[in-house]
Design goal:
two-stranded antiparallel sheet; binds iron/sulfur cluster; mainly alpha; Fumarate Reductase Iron-sulfur Protein, Chain B, domain 2
């Protein structure tokens, strides 16, 4: 066996006699340990995890094979493995592993590493997936938004009734966010395409058409059917569903506000009696309550080590803060605390930027990768329904 440092080419080569030479990528193994996979070497391949995983099938078992591939540093093989994204992080396997190797955490670390390396541009993947750079990630929108205020000459708190568009006019804030979100969306589509092209199609003959499989995967995703199979974290389904529909509701209301402004010239603040406000406030509450359920769920697991969860924790806290600052901006506007309202609105916009512009590089990126992984399994006939 050859051991090399940070090699880029395939870690598995075949020599002319047909024997297999494994050349582990040691940097990759170190990175997985740093991202929360410290326990990977404890695995002794008993296969209990593949036996109890509710999504593992006879034809496509996991996560035992991912454990040995990670121990051997087979980065390229792992990055072509749909099972890393098919896993929905229920952690049933981690609870029952007799060696405490926590395969669920290893798959989580592999997903973070994949986002880091598959992102376009890659440096944003490195910044957003690494909690040490979170402050820098916020500095970028803070600088850009401050530059807008300077260009508009809006450097003091407006007098009179609180109207947030007096700080950032709708035209400038809509142009700012829509431009960045459009760029992020294009980058995300490129990353998803790369992932799809990587999947090991030659090992999995496809029996179903892409379009049909994708529609079935979306339907399953909307109902979170696979989450019902969780044993250890059965209450995680409700939290995840609330966060998911909270985001959907906030996306709808943001588009609704733009529609009101550009087609009917209705400006913010919108009246509390307007259906738009009901949807917006309900969505914010769903987001906050759902995130609190997910946080409580993680706190229950005494074995979650701080490193494995730092990527998840950072994201969960930012989601919670976007909900809390969103609701707070409304409350301080209603009770008319001008000095607090505008700074709070500025901070809220930083969280909005983090969530909607950085989404291809954050935990939110799992949405598309997981959807494609389910689609892939459906096409290959290995989906567990
Ligand atoms: S991760 Fe644990 S349960 Fe799975 S094969 Fe290794 S030792 Fe066995
Ligand atoms: S975390 Fe859950 S879905 Fe993922 S491999 Fe373990 S048992 Fe399977």
């Amino acid at each position: 066996m050859n051991y090399t440092e940070g090699q880029d080419k395939d870690s598995k080569n075949q020599n002319m006699a047909g024997s297999v030479i494994l050349s582990p990528d040691l940097k990759f193994i170190r990175d997985i340990k740093r991202l929360g996979g410290e326990t990977v070497k404890k695995c002794y391949q008993c296969a209990t995890c593949s036996g109890i995983c509710p999504l593992s099938s006879e034809n496509s078992p996991f996560p035992r094979k991912e454990m040995i591939m990670t121990q051997l540093g087979m980065k390229n093989e792992l990055f072509r493995d749909s099972d890393i994204w098919y896993c929905h992080n229920c952690n049933d396997c981690s609870k029952l592993c007799p060696r405490g190797a926590r395969p669920g955490d290893i798959l989580g670390a592999l997903r973070a590493k994949f986002i880091m390396e598959n992102s376009v541009p890659r440096f944003l993947g490195k910044i957003v997936t690494n909690p040490s750079y979170t402050l820098f990630a916020f500095f970028i929108p803070a600088f850009l938004l401050f530059a807008i205020l300077v260009s508009l000459g809006h450097l003091s708190i407006p007098d009179g009734k609180i109207v947030y568009s007096r700080l950032f006019p709708v035209e400038s804030i809509d142009l700012f966010f829509s431009s960045f979100v459009a760029i992020s969306l294009i980058m995300y589509i490129i990353s998803l395409r790369r992932f799809w092209l990587r999947l090991r199609k030659e090992d999995n003959p496809q029996t179903e058409r892409f379009g049909k499989a994708l529609i079935q995967a979306v339907a399953e995703f909307l109902l979170h059917r696979k989450f019902s199979k969780c044993d250890v974290n059965s209450d995680r389904k409700n939290g995840h569903l609330m966060v998911f529909y909270g985001f959907v509701g906030l996306f709808i209301t943001t588009s609704w506000v733009a529609f009101y402004y550009w087609f009917f010239h209705i400006n913010t603040p919108i009246s509390l009696g307007d259906p738009l406000k009901w949807v917006a406030n309900t969505s914010a509450l769903l987001l906050i309550i759902g995130t609190l359920i997910l946080i409580a769920n993680r706190l229950k697991d005494k074995n979650v080590n701080s490193r494995s969860s730092s990527f998840d924790w950072t994201f969960a806290i930012i989601v919670l803060l976007i909900g809390l600052t969103g609701l707070s901006t409304e409350i301080v506007r209603l009770i008319n605390i001008t000095d607090l309202a505008y700074p709070l609105y500025f901070i809220h916009l930083l969280f909005v930027f983090y969530i909607i512009v950085y989404f291809p590089y954050s935990k939110l990126a799992h949405f598309g990768y997981r959807l494609l992984a389910i689609t892939f399994h459906k096409m290959a006939g290995t989906d567990v329904t």
